[in-house]
Amino acid sequence: MASLGHVAVGMAAGRLWTGLQRQNEPGSFTPLARSMLAFSALSLAPDLDVIAFRLGIPYSAPFGHRGAAHSIFLALVLASIATLAVRDRPDQVNSGQTRKRLWVLCAVVAISHGLLDTLTDGGLGIALLWPFSNERFFAPWTPIPVAPIGARMLTSRGVRVVMTEALQFGPLLVWAVWPRRRATG
């Protein structure tokens, strides 16, 4: 994937979270933008495993690209860390319930990375079940073209991948950024 889909998931989660928290005061863009940025970073985090190439770790190794970092197990760990990193707001009435909701949303966003990558049409698959299995999986349907890595992303093939993802994830991006009417009351 070219990551546009992962960013779309993060932005939509940020929009959802700010709506659930009702912390986006009229005329204030900052809480929404901060939330979208944080959830997008969470959604993109598994791809930090591309550093494995620089470290000489083979693609097919458990800690290679699309290996352990893309697993459901590490997504749940990452969701837990992200949830713990968020400070409680003084005006929160039921911070325990809020934390649970935040963890669930973080888990969905983090797990979505590996699941979306199973929908790509190339590579070696995704190690979704690591550490219990090193087997790599693809979904039965692979409508998302695999993106070239590094500078090859700047080729015509890379541009085609980005354009394809823009069409596939455009509705989610539009929903995430569409202006909302202010509640009257």
Describe the structure.
The structure is a single chain. The protein has helices at residues 4-21, 30-44, 51-54, 72-85, 95-117, 156-177. The chain is mainly alpha-helical and 185 residues long. It has one domain (4-177). Helix 1 crosses helix 2. The chain is globular and about 45 Å long. The termini are far apart.
Domain count: the total is 1
Helical residue percent band: 40-55%
Strand-residue proportion:
under 5%
- Gap from first CA to last CA: 44 Å
Q: What's the multimeric state?
A: single chain
Helix-strand category = mainly alpha
Net shape: globular
The SSE order reads HHHHHH
Number of E-state strands:
0
Summarize the main sheet: none
| Low-pLDDT residue intervals, each spanning 5 or more residues | none
Mean pLDDT: 90
**Total helical elements:** 6
Furnish the topology, listing elements before pairings.
Elements: H1 4-21, H2 30-44, H3 51-54, H4 72-85, H5 95-117, H6 156-177
Helix pairs in contact: 1-2, 1-5, 1-6, 2-5, 4-5
Summarize the structure.
This protein has helices spanning 4-21, 30-44, 51-54, 72-85, 95-117, 156-177. By secondary structure, the chain is mainly α.
